[in-house]
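Lay summary

Proteins are chains of building blocks that fold into shapes. Our project writes down both the chain and a compact code for its shape. Here are two examples, one after the other.
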Amino acid sequence: MISWNLLKKLQQKVNFTEREVVIADYILNHCEEVLKMTTRQLANETYTSATIIVRFVRKLGYQGFNDFKIHLLTDLKENSYQEIEVEKKESLISIVNKVSSLHEKVLLETKNRLSIDDLEKIQQAIKNVDQINIFALDANASIGEYVYHNIMQAGKLSNVYQ
């Protein structure tokens, strides 16, 4: 496993050639899109070649482009919630603000990932079943109970199993 954060490596550009700087800048500015790209697509966007992309990710210490994308995704997920960590001597107001920020981020992320088509498919699936069973552990069981009550209010049978 790579020892230090991929995003930091891309930002610091240590020992990068001019082409590699262009590639790193593109990745940093288009992280989400890069996760869905092939080496050829990234090469087209950075005016390089697929071979240069492969050499670049190997220089960073990855087996190949897919390995690189997995680590990029991991880093993006870790960094998106890093500023929400609570420290020992933090004020109550600061903690409340961080929890509120986390709540907003989660809602926005959920909204951005759901499409109208997805919601219509979910709605149709719920209409087509007689009963909905929820399996959950720990804190998710509380969420399951909340969902259970909402499903029951909508007129569907439901159970929560822990």
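And here is the second example, written the same way.
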Amino acid sequence: MNWITSYVRPKINSMLGRRDIPENLWIKCPETGEMVFHKDLEDNQWVIPSSGHHMKIKAAERLKFFFDDGAYETLENPKAAVDPLKFRDEKRYTDRLKDAKAKTGMDDAIVNALGTIDGLPVVATVQDFAFMGGSLGMAAGEAIIRGFQAAIDKKRPLILFAASGGARMQEGILSLMQLPRTTVMVDRLKEAGLPYIVVLTNPTTGGVTASYAMLGDVHIAEPGALIGFAGPRVIEQTIREKLPEGFQRSEYLMEHGMVDMVVSRLELKETIARLLKMLLNTPLEEAEAEPEEVEVIVAEPVEETAPAQG
């Protein structure tokens, strides 16, 4: 036992009335090292105010910021087989799932929600990286299909927020089969004449990039997001060449035509609402009416008449 830390310090703290400070009260910016107050960062949608660095955000918080007044209704995810291959590495797959569910409070990596943005009814599908790296397994695939089907049934546009490390290795070929299944649903949504907008967040990689994440009508990327199939290190080791600066980042991909625009999270809602109004041929908000011109009538001067002579 350390006498100073176990006895002296607690005694001094109690005398001075000190309280333990939560460890997550301040958050360090990964780019600049600046310390940002937790509440300020949360109010700014987890975007560092000074550097503009986009931190990862939970699915529930993203939906709250995205929908009008933060109001939305979530769809129940369909049931899927759990651990179909009885997979085990350092831990059993079932144990990993239990840990992820306890950590995030989610059934799997996908959340589907119904709500409005700028008054337009939409379906939003969000992939949460906190749940096993947003990996795509059978349960996630079924949930994505449920989101597309809801959009078709309710005749609403679909906005998908992608965030994933790729297919879920613990489910092997069954995970890879979700790629063509979700691709079929993209085709059905387009056959119904409904817009499909994809928001690529950090990171979007692997089989997700090779399927539904790159099949949208419009592709929007958050600033600095890593987007690609294989990671930069794997590519460098394969081709034995140094990659260009910023390779596979949002800004580089927009310059080379892989994404349509890079938009800050703070401006996503307004940007998507404007795009949907154009795609749905919905009239944009009418400009403020100009004041009516008032016709000014100028009276003609009255000619003075000379007084009559008596």
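What can we say about the second shape? The chain has two domains: 21-55, 56-279.
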